[in-house]
């Protein structure tokens, strides 16, 4: 609406100036030129206001778009980090499972080794006992006790691991 009144004021200013030119009235001519200039300035101010408003709206839209882009990027990054953490958790779980399997294998080997040592010690003691005297009988009994303790200690160690 301001645009129409400004155009009317500009037209009135031109008319006054033209009337002043025709009549030779310098005051009327100056008044018409002033009205015309005032109307043109108002029109330019309105044009600048409109341009500034449009630019501000464009900047706000651009800022909102950028904010949405950043939000999307952050969301994707969070998702990537969560996926990576989950993958690492699976890797750790597999490593723990492998380690547990290895520990079980080591424990079985320790038990088998302890049983083998006990069997060898018993065999050795029985050979020594069969070749010997009454004195070796006491040693044989001690040898069995030592072998039994060794096997028991080996089994306990294997179970603990």
From TrEMBL:
Pfam families: CsbD (PF05532). SUPFAM superfamilies: Hypothetical protein YjbJ. The chain crosses the membrane at residues 104-122. Residues 26-38 have a biased composition (Basic and acidic residues). Keywords: Membrane, Transmembrane, Transmembrane helix. Residues 5-52 form the CsbD-like domain. This is CsbD-like protein.
